[in-house]
Automatic annotation (TrEMBL):
It comes from Balaenoptera omurai. InterPro entries: p53-like_TF_DNA-bd_sf, T-box_DNA-bd, T-box_sf, TF_T-box. SUPFAM superfamilies: p53-like transcription factors. This is Transcription factor Tbx4. GO terms for molecular function: DNA-binding transcription factor activity, RNA polymerase II-specific; RNA polymerase II cis-regulatory region sequence-specific DNA binding. Keywords: DNA-binding, Nucleus, Transcription, Transcription regulation. Residues 1-48 form the T-box domain. GO terms for biological process: angiogenesis; cell fate specification; positive regulation of DNA-templated transcription. GO terms for cellular component: chromatin; nucleus.
Length: 48
């Protein structure tokens, strides 16, 4: 199937100079907006 559905996500990460990104104590949240989902063609076929 060449059609795939995608759902963008917004990841918000709290970062500061003293806290390395990706450490266990990194605060983050993820937001999903259902109205931004879309379907894309991932494979094109030329029948010529």
């Amino acid at each position: 199937n060449s059609m795939h559905k995608y759902q963008p996500r917004l990841h918000i990460v709290k970062a500061d100079e003293n806290n390395a990104f990706g450490s266990k104590n990194t605060a983050f949240c993820t937001h999903v907006f259902p109205e931004t989902s879309f379907i894309s063609v991932t494979s094109y076929q030329n029948h010529k």
